[in-house]
Structure prediction request, 265 residues.
Amino acid sequence: MKKAANLEVLYYELPWASRFKAAKKDGFEYVEFWGWEDKDLAEVKQLLADNDLKLAGMGGDGPFSMCDPAFKDQYLEYIRRAIDAAKFVGCPNLIIHSDALQSGPQYAVPLSGDYSDTEKKLNMYDILLTISKWAEEADITFVLEALNIVTDHLGNFLTSTQTSAELTAATGSENMKILYDAYHMYLNEGKLCETVSKYLKNIGYIHIADAPGRHEPGTGVINYKNFFRHLEELGYDGVVGFELYPKASTAEAVAAIKDVASPLA
Prediction:
């Protein structure tokens, strides 16, 4: 199991470049971040090397919605650029979604038309099938993430583990998996252990935050000690990314993370 610190939200007290060293000092061997367009990728590559860190994952899509047929060509062109960025920094996983998100609050960007659920799924499948071939050629993996529509991402189309797993599996590609976000799926579905057991072969990446609040383990109601024990029993060997907002400080959040998921490496 590879455990990654999300540098967008952890170590928020520090300048961007200093977060890499802090993550390494705390025992992380992997880091992740969101979008790549706002990053100096040459600097990121150097910071990874200087601190002996590996980049586990980063955002693969941006301003276009995969489920919107009107923007299919633009979405695919963006994905091509994201693959080039991932290859440059040595990132093995690109995180993708059904919808583009607005900032503050992160609601889904309105679609260009009143499409049915079937139309949205068909457009997503067509895109996933296309980019799965690109992923195989580039030796990277796309991980499709469903989001909660209870608190954070109102209007987002993809909300269930089942649909995520079925869409990606239908491509027939081992380079197409799902990102199971335990926080999002606790809010949408519950049954965390049962779900990861059922869809283990489809899961290539996991995100962790407690609920409610999206803070570190121990601040909400999810029993993360049992959840990590369950992942170990299942033999999960993918990435676990700590994408959470420290309730008080990163130091306290990292201590809580280590309490449920130590060692971090």
Observations:
- The mean pLDDT is 97.
- The chain has nine helices and eight strands.
- The radius of gyration is 17 Å.
- The beta strands are 2-6, 30-32, 54-59, 93-96, 141-145, 176-181, 203-208, 239-242.
